[in-house]
Design a protein that fits this description.
Blueprint lengths: L1 E3 L6 E3 L2 E3 H15 L3 E6 L4 H4 L6 H5 L4 E4 L3 H13 L3 E6 L9 H14 L9 E6 L14 H4 L6 E3 L17 E6 L6 E3 L1
Parallel strand pairs: 4-5, 4-6, 6-7, 7-9, 8-9
Antiparallel strand pairs: 1-2, 3-10
Helix pairs in contact: 4-5
């Protein structure tokens, strides 16, 4: 499908894109454009954890920039926040957003405050990505869908990619960003 803008006669081609593919494209673009960007989190090598959002990243960028971690939400997020403070641009993924609550200390006490504690001179360019995983086998402790709990913190920008095109550009411009997406939306297709 194409549309024409009356101010710009060039044709714009719209394509159908799933959220999973949009996230995957955004990660590829971010990592290609900036060698300080890396992906870290539990299951980043497994489609069972992150769907198809990390497809091809390990093969293209290697294990130093696509880091699969053990289950330790606080330690993984703390490592990402520390890397951001040192000048890197990590994207940390939490495939079970419910357990992301264990990571609130480095998010709230370090990432959110660092900019202010340093008179606005230093930033913490970390993207914290939570997946609301409503799939099967979640058990009683892994399915409360906590997006309302993790966004309202001073110093942390909130993001919610309402459409696939919105997945690109969620990097906070140097500030910590938290965003989430329900895994059920990964198969949703919208025009981009």
């Amino acid at each position: 499908m194409s549309s024409t803008n009356s101010k710009n006669p060039r044709k714009h081609i719209m394509r159908k894109l799933s959220f999973a593919l949009a996230i995957n494209e955004a990660l590829h673009q971010m990592m290609e454009a900036d060698p300080s960007v890396f992906l870290i989190g539990q299951g980043v090598k497994s489609p069972w954890y992150v769907g198809k959002t990390a497809d091809g990243l390990l093969e293209r960028f290697g294990s130093k920039r696509v880091i699969d971690t053990p289950v330790s939400e606080n330690a993984v997020t703390g490592a990402a926040v520390g890397a951001a403070m040192a000048g890197m641009r990590p994207v940390v993924v939490h495939p079970r957003m419910d357990f992301m609550l264990y990571a609130m200390d480095p998010i709230i006490n370090q990432a959110a405050n660092w900019h202010y504690m340093n008179g606005g001179k230093l930033s913490v360019p970390v993207v914290i990505w939570g997946i609301i995983n409503r799939g099967g086998r979640t058990g009683g402790t892994a399915f409360s869908g906590t997006p309302c709990h993790v966004r309202p913190f001073s110093g942390v920008e909130g993001g919610d990619a309402g459409e696939p095109g919105g997945c690109q550009g969620i990097d906070g411009g140097g500030n910590p960003v938290m965003w989430d997406r329900d895994v059920l939306n990964y198969l949703t297709y919208l025009a981009k």
